[in-house]
Amino acid sequence: MPAHQPLPTTTTIENLLDLDSLLSAEDRDLRTMVRGFGEQRLRPQIAEWFEAGQVPVRELAAEIGKLGLLGMHLQGYGCSGSTATAYGLVCQELEAVDSGLRSLVSVQGSLAMFAIHRWGSEEQRTRWLPGMAAGELIGCFGLTEPDFGSNPGGMRTTARRDGSDWILNGSKMWITNASVADVAIIWARSKEGVLGFAVPTSTPGFHATEMTRKLSLRASVTSEIHLDDVRVPEDARLPEAQGLKAPLSCLSEARFGIVFGAVGAARDCLQTTLDYVGTRAVFDRPLAGYQLTQAKIADMAVELGKAQLLALHLGRLKDEGRIRPEQVSVGKLNNVREAIKIARQCRTLLGANGITLEYPVLRHANNLESVLTYEGTSEVHQLVIGEALTGVGAFR
């Protein structure tokens, strides 16, 4: 039976709520540029990278750097100083291809580069940031440890003074790009409190091993770091960083990108599903013509639109310098939770085809399982929001 051709429609996922009217012409042009890069350069190879569990990080970082997207929301040192909303839209378009690609940009710009930009010295900014913005140098962010994820305050990695130097010992786990990085931002406990260090990965005693056999974020390099008497000079210490406030501020930056990024993954799933149900015949009629199908699509489109509106609102708050950590938690909690629901629902509409790499939906769903957990689990964000509303901390 020939494939059914759906009736032409002027309503799309993106204009259902006329969300483009909330964006500036510059934002729309940037989104178009990044979407084009994703469609032409990334999407043709993403399934292969995911299946192989390998991604050309350095090659991609150089290309993304040329587009001005690495650390784009930072000022100076080769960074364009864009708005938070513009950065969010970039994250959205990259994650529409794959969460691992958004993670590459997020870890580079919102974790490693932001840590140096916000908490580092002028010498550290000058040394590292221009090369990182260009994608010539890769950074990673070493906070999470094998036994301490949601509770970074329990970290066991230590920093001990030895004359004018510092000696670092410990382990970090689930660190994106560590095994290909040039510089690692390492957080460690010392007598002075929690400190941060910009550690060249060529330093003796620094070892990073790629973690394999992942079922999620396969198009991303994930590594374990071991620090064995790593000696660094005083000028490697981030001078403005003391206490957990510093690394947590970096996490808040990265979470903001996820608020937008998750929308991209969900949008790609829903668009793929819309295209599929319009041409897939079931019992001699298009799958799109069944009431249950339309109910599912309508519900997903509504949740996607709400998530996009939330992301844009938080972007405006951040651009105005008024965003609070619990607001970022609202965005991360809601948008990732809804995105993974959409991905799973889309998989059911694609049937058996939904489990293959010919379609992106299960790849997105698998990736979102990691996004749901990293940069704060759903439970952690619930507690952040709960404490903000009640005034009572319930973490312990």
Automatic annotation (TrEMBL):
<dbReference type="InterPro" id="IPR006091">
    <property type="entry name" value="Acyl-CoA_Oxase/DH_mid-dom"/>
</dbReference>
<dbReference type="GO" id="GO:0033539">
    <property type="term" value="P:fatty acid beta-oxidation using acyl-CoA dehydrogenase"/>
</dbReference>
<keyword id="KW-0809">Transit peptide</keyword>
<dbReference type="InterPro" id="IPR009100">
    <property type="entry name" value="AcylCoA_DH/oxidase_NM_dom_sf"/>
</dbReference>
<dbReference type="InterPro" id="IPR036250">
    <property type="entry name" value="AcylCo_DH-like_C"/>
</dbReference>
<dbReference type="Pfam" id="PF00441">
    <property type="entry name" value="Acyl-CoA_dh_1"/>
</dbReference>
<dbReference type="InterPro" id="IPR037069">
    <property type="entry name" value="AcylCoA_DH/ox_N_sf"/>
</dbReference>
<dbReference type="GO" id="GO:0000062">
    <property type="term" value="F:fatty-acyl-CoA binding"/>
</dbReference>
<keyword id="KW-0285">Flavoprotein</keyword>
<dbReference type="InterPro" id="IPR013786">
    <property type="entry name" value="AcylCoA_DH/ox_N"/>
</dbReference>
<feature type="domain" description="Acyl-CoA oxidase/dehydrogenase middle">
    <location>
        <begin position="140"/>
        <end position="230"/>
    </location>
</feature>
<dbReference type="InterPro" id="IPR046373">
    <property type="entry name" value="Acyl-CoA_Oxase/DH_mid-dom_sf"/>
</dbReference>
<keyword id="KW-0560">Oxidoreductase</keyword>
<protein>
    <submittedName>
        <fullName>Acyl-CoA dehydrogenase domain protein</fullName>
    </submittedName>
</protein>
<dbReference type="GO" id="GO:0050660">
    <property type="term" value="F:flavin adenine dinucleotide binding"/>
</dbReference>
<feature type="domain" description="Acyl-CoA dehydrogenase/oxidase C-terminal">
    <location>
        <begin position="242"/>
        <end position="389"/>
    </location>
</feature>
<dbReference type="InterPro" id="IPR009075">
    <property type="entry name" value="AcylCo_DH/oxidase_C"/>
</dbReference>
<dbReference type="InterPro" id="IPR052033">
    <property type="entry name" value="Glutaryl-CoA_DH_mitochondrial"/>
</dbReference>
<keyword id="KW-0274">FAD</keyword>
<dbReference type="Pfam" id="PF02770">
    <property type="entry name" value="Acyl-CoA_dh_M"/>
</dbReference>
<dbReference type="GO" id="GO:0046949">
    <property type="term" value="P:fatty-acyl-CoA biosynthetic process"/>
</dbReference>
<dbReference type="Pfam" id="PF02771">
    <property type="entry name" value="Acyl-CoA_dh_N"/>
</dbReference>
<dbReference type="GO" id="GO:0004361">
    <property type="term" value="F:glutaryl-CoA dehydrogenase activity"/>
</dbReference>
<feature type="domain" description="Acyl-CoA dehydrogenase/oxidase N-terminal">
    <location>
        <begin position="25"/>
        <end position="136"/>
    </location>
</feature>
<comment type="similarity">
    <text>Belongs to the acyl-CoA dehydrogenase family.</text>
</comment>
